[in-house]
Recover the amino acids of this structure.
């Protein structure tokens, strides 16, 4: 495990107010204890199988492969999980940990609402009290997800301070956590935040890469040449990448959102265009202005719309273990359409970034080469937005 | 030599408690902040905390966040704040402490930041999101330039941490009176005496209490136990109220001074 006090190279760490030190220490201690506890791991795999529906297929996209005329494209089908995305892997892991720690109440932040829904789902499963913080503006943009969370029994708090978006929801959730940590667990959704969150989220998402490795060895009898996954905070990507870290023949490519173009102000490509800074308690590549203020970011995909990126990705990039590319809104939209038509799979607009890059890459490679793309979620949630965009095209 | 140490020594000799107002630099304008600091120094403040506005202040509550957003909209920069400090330093000997988030220091470059602070006449530095474990480089550099790095402790800090933080902190120890973020609260001082007594077992530094002191009465209660009190959100609220009602910066400075005098009076009675 590449981890030294929560650092990946110079990235990560725990840049938090003193009031958060005690809660995070308690969390760290319990996480490291239970992640090696057989009973805990058995319980987790029970629910991943019976409730989430794992393992999900590593699907050979034959028609897409033919259309590109190059390397074989395999899709890791996280979209087939219960709730339709990889988020549930982590939500379940953290909820089980919360239960072991005797916490009665779960809190989480959410931007577009996907992590909120996953958290509310896992809370319903175990009958835990659930509070989701969401910026007021986001609650209006994502009314249906608010309703979904409420259906699942969660209380959604609309945050009216600051910019009234994800960033303020995080602040509000952290404040709740500082005050109530004795009975409350903060369930963070991406591989970001202060230690131990990036490591913990990676561990709970690594099931993606472990399964993919076993599956590709079974079908192809060898490791893939490339792994491709979209990166916002980077939880689905690190889940796929990490189990292949030591397999140096496997090239790793993270795909960031280039939004309306890397030379515009409207993207969220933190590694490609950012500088090192501190955001939400950890050090990483961030997009900030000349006064060190986090910049407003844009992506067609709400789930990639974040001005920082996980510390482990920052380290993979700096050390050269992985490459980070970027795909524009338009390229992602094309991939969304093409995958729907050629394979009958409507991908999440986030995952479409990975698909778009893999399509370009496949063309440049030989037919006996292999690419695995993480199809991190299904696109039903994006259908209305895409319809709107096509109308205006 | 060091202004912070001198002030606390003097206060101790006079059996008085330190009053430390927090101002948000650039709210509602930097010109306002400059006038305000001089006025507060005249009506009972012993040290001044200069808050550098930041858009993602994880330790601050809604009031300071609101002020910071407005200050950033005004376009206030770190360079301007340091220039203001230099001008203030020509007119007053009151200790000036900069409160800023670590990203601002990190991106500027730790040595560059501390050097700028030292040459602007800044005496101390508070970085609420820099826990002891990450503070080594900054502390060494601050020591080198004679700037006090003031560390924070919370009611949840373990005895072992309090001891280490007490050894590393300079000037005084910032004791957070509550769990949670900054902001005026009504009843916050339960067990403050017990908390501070525990801290005193581990350090001989003066103890200043902040987070949640909202009025003369809470100020008085906190000052009974501590060596100093820090008041931020409540002071900003006075400025906000006055600006909303009177729409005059002079009147707002008046309101802030009046509030500060009332705090001074409250903590001087005992």
């Amino acid at each position: 495990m590449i981890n030294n006090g929560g650092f990946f190279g110079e990235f990560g760490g725990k840049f938090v107010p003193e009031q958060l030190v005690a809660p995070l220490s308690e969390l760290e201690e319990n996480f490291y204890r239970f992640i090696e506890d057989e009973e805990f791991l058995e319980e987790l795999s029970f629910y991943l199988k019976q409730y989430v529906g794992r393992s999900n297929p590593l699907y050979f996209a034959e028609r897409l492969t033919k259309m590109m005329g190059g390397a074989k494209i395999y899709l890791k089908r996280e979209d087939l999980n219960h709730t339709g995305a990889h988020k549930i892997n982590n939500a379940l892991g953290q909820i089980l940990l919360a239960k072991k720690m005797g916490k009665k109440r779960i809190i989480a932040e959410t931007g577009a609402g996907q992590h909120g829904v996953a958290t509310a789902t896992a809370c319903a499963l175990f009958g835990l009290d659930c509070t989701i913080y969401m910026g007021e503006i986001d609650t209006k943009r994502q009314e249906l997800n608010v309703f979904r969370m409420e259906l699942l029994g969660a209380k959604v708090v609309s945050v009216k301070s600051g910019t009234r978006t994800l960033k303020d929801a995080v602040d509000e959730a952290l404040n709740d956590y500082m005050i109530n940590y004795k009975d409350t667990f903060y369930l963070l959704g991406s591989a970001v935040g202060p230690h131990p969150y990036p490591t913990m989220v990676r561990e709970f998402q690594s099931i993606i890469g472990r399964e993919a490795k076993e599956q590709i060895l079974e079908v192809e009898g060898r490791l893939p040449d490339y792994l491709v996954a979209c990166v916002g905070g980077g939880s689905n990507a690190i889940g796929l990448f990490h189990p292949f870290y030591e397999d140096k023949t496997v090239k790793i490519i993270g795909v960031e959102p280039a939004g309306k173009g890397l030379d515009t102000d409207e993207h969220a490509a933190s590694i490609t265009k950012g500088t090192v800074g501190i955001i939400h308690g950890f050090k990483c590549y961030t997009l900030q202005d000349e006064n060190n203020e986090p910049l407003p970011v844009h992506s067609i995909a709400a789930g990639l719309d974040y001005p920082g990126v996980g510390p482990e990705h920052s380290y993979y990039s700096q050390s050269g273990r992985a490459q980070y590319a970027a795909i524009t809104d338009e390229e992602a939209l094309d991939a969304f359409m093409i995958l729907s038509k050629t394979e009958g799979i409507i991908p999440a607009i986030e995952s479409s970034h990975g698909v778009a890059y893999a399509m370009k890459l496949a063309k440049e490679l030989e037919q006996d080469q292999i690419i695995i793309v993480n199809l991190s979620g299904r696109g039903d949630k994006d259908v209305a937005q895409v319809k709107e965009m096509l109308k205006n095209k | 030599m060091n202004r912070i140490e001198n002030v606390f020594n003097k206060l101790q000799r006079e059996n008085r408690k330190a009053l430390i107002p927090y101002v948000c630099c650039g709210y509602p304008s930097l010109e306002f902040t400059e006038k305000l600091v001089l006025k507060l120094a005249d009506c009972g403040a012993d040290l001044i905390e200069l808050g550098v506005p930041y858009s993602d202040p994880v330790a601050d509550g809604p009031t300071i966040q609101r002020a910071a957003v407005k200050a950033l909209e005004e376009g206030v920069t770190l360079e301007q704040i340091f220039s203001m400090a230099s001008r203030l330093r020509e007119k007053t000997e009151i200790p000036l402490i900069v409160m800023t988030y670590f990203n601002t220091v990190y991106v500027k470059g730790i040595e560059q930041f501390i050097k700028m602070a030292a040459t602007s006449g800044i005496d101390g530095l508070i970085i609420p999101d820099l826990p002891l474990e990450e503070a080594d480089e900054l502390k060494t550099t601050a020591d080198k330039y004679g700037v006090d790095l003031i560390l924070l402790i919370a009611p949840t800090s373990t005895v072992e941490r309090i001891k280490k933080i007490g050894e590393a902190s300079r000037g005084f120890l910032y004791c957070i009176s509550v769990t949670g973020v900054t902001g005026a609260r009504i009843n916050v001082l339960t067990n403050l005496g017990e908390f501070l007594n525990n801290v005193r077992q581990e350090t001989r530094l003066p103890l200043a209490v902040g987070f949640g002191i909202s009025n003369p009465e809470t100020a008085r209660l906190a000052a009974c136990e501590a060596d100093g009190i820090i008041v931020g959100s409540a002071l900003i609220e006075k400025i906000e109220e006055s600006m909303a009602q009177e729409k005059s910066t002079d009147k707002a400075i008046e309101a802030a001074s009046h509030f500060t005098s009332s705090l001074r009076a409250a903590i001087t009675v005992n």
